[in-house]
Structure prediction request, 289 residues.
Amino acid sequence: MTIVAIDFETANERRDSACAVGLAWIADGRVVRRESRLIRPPELRFAPGNIRVHGILPADVADKPPFDAVMAAFLPDLAGGLVLAHNASFDIGVLRASLHAHGLAAPPLAYLCTVQVARRVFPDPAGCDLSKVAARLGIRFAHHDAGEDAYACAEIALAAMRETGAADMADLSRRIDLPVTRVAGGPAPPTRPAAGPISDRVMRAFRPAAPAPLRFTMRGSTGNRYDVTLEERAGAPYLRCTCMAGRHGMRCRHVKALAVGDVTDLLSDNAGDLARVFRALAAVPVASS
Prediction:
């Protein structure tokens, strides 16, 4: 079975805005191959917060191939093997959303999240962010470079195998009681017909149900768990936290972290939902509390 770690960097809050990908292949208990590519996203809209994280600018990718061209050579290994990712819900979400954005079917995938692996094998009150786990294990890498992050992810998985005495990734999954997640392949999105007078009236009359409030569980400095919820106040979106500072109307560190996409202390497995938070907060110039 092909085992490959993957990491994406994105241009903005959209999952289909991949601007870089890194991959690291594992065989015989070690990393045997590494690849890194820049990607031209569908639109050259880069959020300042994303640029601060990875340092990639629109000019860096303006002449690079699009997602489908970059990933064509790698998809067979991803679809036919085991994918590793640190905070896998985000990276798998980017992969599937970007394929759909290019009118391509998402392949069936089997993946293992190394955040969850680290929480079981290398637990620490400081958290299991990629850089923190790597530092504890002595893995040297340049954080937020996609290729380097993929390499660190692979090395964390290998370290977990050694720590548990697992023979392979499947054995590691069994030993730590963390099942491999399997996602069925999805068809390419249908092409929408041009709207005529009747469909225009239907669309104007359609009112979708309001989505459930977004809630994120965060780790406090002493290990307590707090909920940060995206709510509305006077018709404007804001983030409310259940920590002491949040209950007193202050903009606490948990809210500040989520507002810029920092998932270091995120305990709930829904980092991908931050895209909805970014869109809501960007729509109206409000101060989160």
